[in-house]
Amino acid sequence: MPLLIILFDPGAGHLQESQSFCPFKMLTGLPCPGCGMVKSMVSLYRGDLAASFSYHLFGPLLILFFTSALFVMTAELIRGRNYSIKWLYNIKLAYGAAVLMGSYHLVRVILFITSHSFGEILHESIWF
């Protein structure tokens, strides 16, 4: 999806002003935990690291994860060996990441509610 947006988006400003296709945001007007992730990745692809982090803190980390996984899978195919990445299957790491993302989302929602009026939040939804 980020690649398609880069190819067909008329400019970086359009990305900022465009309506979200997130079903949760369309119903409630509030951002979901993943809202801004695609805009974050597109901004990083365009070379704007600050904008990438402003859209979503985990966007650049997700790109790093995808890139690493691509290299590991390519190496597995070329070498014919299985590189087991044990930390990837660590349950404590998974719980820690879930708590970190949940906390980040809670802070984002609180900041969103305090910086927007009820009318602006309603305008973000489909009910306006």
Please describe what this structure looks like:
- The chain is mainly alpha-helical.
- The protein has one domain.
- It is 69% helix and 0% strand.
- The protein has helices at residues 2-8, 12-17, 23-28, 37-45, 49-55, 59-79, 91-115, 118-124.
- The model has no long low-confidence stretch (mean pLDDT 83).
List its traits:
128 residues; mainly alpha; 0% strand; globular
Topology readout:
Blueprint: H1 2-8, H2 12-17, H3 23-28, H4 37-45, H5 49-55, H6 59-79, H7 91-115, H8 118-124
Tell me briefly what this model is.
With 128 residues, the chain is mostly helical. It is built from 8 helices and no strands.
Query: Rg from C-alpha positions?
Result: 18 Å
> Helix count, per DSSP?
8
Which range best describes the helical content: under 10%, 10-25%, 25-40%, 40-55%, 55-70% or over 70%? 55-70%
Low-confidence stretches: none
**Order of H and E elements:** HHHHHHHH
Query: How many domains is the backbone divided into?
Result: 1
What's the rounded overall pLDDT mean? Answer: 83
Report the β-strand fraction as a percent range.
under 5%
Largest sheet: none
Backbone shape:
globular
Q: How many angstroms does the end-to-end distance come to?
A: 27 Å
From the helix content, strand content and strand pairing, which structural class follows? mainly alpha
Q: Got a strand count?
A: 0
